[in-house]
Specification:
This protein has 182 residues and is mostly beta strands. It has one domain: Immunoglobulin-like (Sandwich). The protein is built from one helix and twelve strands; from the N terminus they run αββββββββββββ. The protein has a seven-stranded antiparallel sheet, with no helix packed on it. The longest helix has 26 residues. The radius of gyration is 18 Å and the shape is globular.
Length: 182
Amino acid sequence: MKMKNLQKMIVGITVIFCTTVTNIQAAEYDHELQDQKITFAWKVEGDTLAVKLTAETEGWVGIGFNPVKEMKGANFILGYVKDGVAKLDDDYGVDENAHKPDTKLEGTSDVTLVGGTEIDGKTTLEFTLPLASADKNDTKIDVKGDTVVLLAYGSGRDSFLAKHKYRTALKVNLTTGASEKL
């Protein structure tokens, strides 16, 4: 009898702890928007942008900032979680339909991985990036004006070579959180 009560108490404490941790993590970001099955949450922290991307996929998730035309000229951050380990790439849109890692274009990777999970068919990645990096392939992100944001995710493959399953473009004010679909 005592063992069952102890088990119930442990389960109750675990539920309270998990709820508290979830609420703390959700409160870390000032803004959040969702389009279809992808969510983009962010917070401006001085000269850095903290980002959380979540999509209903067991493949990759990605975000691009300020393309010139379609994908061209955009600063892309793409990532996935494989065997519990998160991987991120900092890419540049080389033309309307392709991107390559900054490091292969004489640039630098300026993204910092914070964490990543793949749970119940959802991939979540958290990272930071500078608003104005020294990389020639990265455009400055103006948090006071409108920023064009590309969101996408791939189907179930943990590979950046897999084409997107869903993509969208939004105009976002990173300070106010105001957004509109393009």
